[in-house]
TrEMBL record:
Lineage, broadest ranks: Eukaryota, Metazoa, Chordata, Craniata, Vertebrata
Pfam families referenced in this protein's UniProt entry, alphabetically: DUF1619_N, TCTN_DUF1619
Gene Ontology biological process terms, A to Z: cilium assembly; protein localization to ciliary transition zone
Entry similarity comment: Belongs to the tectonic family.
Organism of this sequence: Nipponia nippon (Crested ibis)
Keyword list, A-Z: Cilium biogenesis/degradation, Glycoprotein, Signal
This protein's name: Tectonic-1
Subunit structure: Part of the tectonic-like complex (also named B9 complex).
């Protein structure tokens, strides 16, 4: 920094008030009134760097320049610790795909993951090794699941529909893929990807970079015939390898479903695989394979997710209620009633006969993003009592046990209390009056649920997050009907989803979650 001078504009001449100009003499400095550039630094993004400080001592006779070099600390939250990636200091034009280099580029970058790190990424290998020795490894969300030889494979289509075995399974990332695999009866015994052994012979590392291994056990085997009929085998402890039998190749893997059990510390403790095996004849040139992976935390009951993390349109809104004695324990127990098997927010289900008393107990889940309306007709007679009728209608509208909380994300866990939004209950009254009872009777006739949600995170991949849920019960007044008369009243349930996302401010690529903004050129030369 002592050699840098941004105000040195004249060649071999002293620039006025440029205190860092090497062409200026002590006599020139004595005539300066100020230093136009009082501080010179290198890269302002560095966390710690040298800074050259220039000032004038006007009390001296004659006035003289004062120069010193200090260590400057960057107070910004975002700073660069070491500029050891030399390729980032200059811009290199990316290689454009052509007919000649396309295959080479596809091989290098075509898989779901690849490494672009240069060989000399780490400049201080000793410090890095010491840091690794003291670090406790664990799996985090999205980290590829490591095995003894590489990583757990979850084949998937890349450029075309053909299977690529280079796709790693990410921790806690539920995936389901389908792809096409080229096969032939003559070579079926030599194709690794259609054998059970290919998916079970490599043990999973319990945590990254550890020597503790978890074997993949076979949970079940289903055999599919040529006409599509499936049969579950009783014994799943024997590997069934592909073999040729009567001009057929049997025991070919058509589907694999992994199930991983993990702890809250990010350690994998169990791994199981379920297989679907099939057969092909000589006419078959390819097969479609399906692959799936799911995760369950140990000592917890698996609950179907509705997104990861944000809600996916068309999947049920997850709900639950608070147990007695809260906050001990602090977990929100999920509702698991007969009418709400998978802890979902539900409304009245419409039927063809539209008789309210006949549809009691029939519920349908509320699907995220779908505005819904359902209803029925209630036939009221003069013999009906007010209080039992009111309770019957409440049970009809709200179900056996209306939940108290809704999950803000599609993957919110029960133990994460702050991830659950309480349902706000409101009551309104209609002006309509039905002459039924001698004394007025307030009965509920509609339930309106409004779900407010917002787009959370990056604009490139926004996640749907529920921020508010309001349930409004509307009542109406009934008065007495003459004996023998009947009246039919409509009872309705409705759900409305409202997007309350704020528009992104100009210049931002995402909604900021902290009160800080990166400099526009922070990631130069990368976008």
């Amino acid at each position: 920094v002592a050699k840098l001078c941004v105000c040195d504009l004249l060649v071999a001449q002293c620039d006025v008030n440029c205190c860092c100009d090497p062409d200026c003499s002590a006599a020139d400095f004595s005539l300066f009134t100020t230093c136009s550039v009082p501080i010179v630094t290198g890269d302002s993004h560095l966390c710690s760097q040298k800074a050259a400080i220039y000032s004038l001592d006007v009390e001296a006779n004659p006035p003289e320049r004062i120069f010193k070099v200090i260590d400057q600390v960057n107070p910004s939250v975002f700073c660069i610790h070491t500029t050891n990636y030399k390729q980032a200091l200059s811009f290199s034009s990316p290689e454009m795909p052509t007919s000649e280099n396309f295959d080479q580029l596809l091989k290098q970058f075509g898989s779901a993951s690849f490494s672009a790190e240069p060989d000399g990424w780490n400049t201080n290998t000793g410090a890095q090794s010491l840091s690794d020795a003291n670090e406790t490894y664990r799996y985090e969300y999205g980290v590829p699941i490591q095995t003894v030889d590489a990583f757990l494979r979850l084949p998937s289509p890349v450029v075309s529909s053909w299977c690529s075995d280079a796709n790693p399974a990410g921790f806690l990332v539920n995936q389901a893929t389908k792809c096409i695999r080229s096969v032939s009866v003559e070579k079926c015994g030599n194709i690794q990807a259609v054998s059970m052994l290919f998916y079970t012979n490599s043990s999973i590392l319990a945590v990254p970079k550890s020597s503790q291994m978890v074997n993949i056990t076979v949970q079940s085997i289903v055999v599919q015939s040529l006409n599509g009929t499936r049969t579950l085998l009783n014994g799943s402890d024997v590997l069934r390898l592909p073999m040729i039998l009567d001009e057929l190749c049997i025991n070919i893997v058509l589907g694999v479903s992994y199930h991983i059990t993990y702890t809250d510390t990010g350690e994998i403790i169990e791994a199981a695989a379920s297989f679907v095996l099939g057969a092909i004849n000589k006419e078959a040139l390819s097969i479609q394979q399906s692959f799936e992976i799911s995760f369950t935390q140990v000592d917890t009951k698996p609950v179907p997710l509705s997104g990861n993390p944000g809600y996916i349109v068309g999947l049920p809104v997850r709900a639950g209620f608070r147990p007695q004695g809260y906050p001990f324990p602090v977990e929100i127990l999920l509702a698991a009633l007969n009418t709400n098997k998978y802890s979902q927010l539900t409304i009245l289900q419409s039927t063809s006969n539209q008789d309210c008393l006949a549809v009691q107990g029939a519920r349908t889940p509320i699907l995220f993003g779908y505005n819904m309306i359902s209803g029925c007709k209630l036939r009221i007679t003069a013999a009906m009592k007010c209080q039992p009728l009111t309770q019957t209608l409440l049970d009809l509208l709200k179900g056996q046990s209306f939940p108290e909380y809704v999950a803000s994300f599609g993957n919110s866990q029960a133990q994460d209390v702050l991830d659950w939004v309480p349902i706000t209950h409101l009551h309104t009254s209609e002006q309509r009056i039905y002459n039924t009872f001698q004394s007025s009777c307030q009965i509920p006739v509609s339930l309106e649920i409004e779900v407010k949600w917002t787009k959370y995170g990056s604009l490139v991949n926004p996640q749907a997050r529920i921020v508010n849920v309001t349930a409004t019960i509307t009542t109406t007044t009934l008065k007495q009907l003459p004996s023998g008369r009947e009246r039919t009243i409509p009872v309705t349930s409705s759900v409305v989803f409202t997007d309350i996302s704020s528009p992104a401010e100009p210049g931002y690529k995402a909604w900021p979650t902290i009160n800080a903004k990166l400099p526009f050129d922070f990631f130069f030369p990368f976008v």
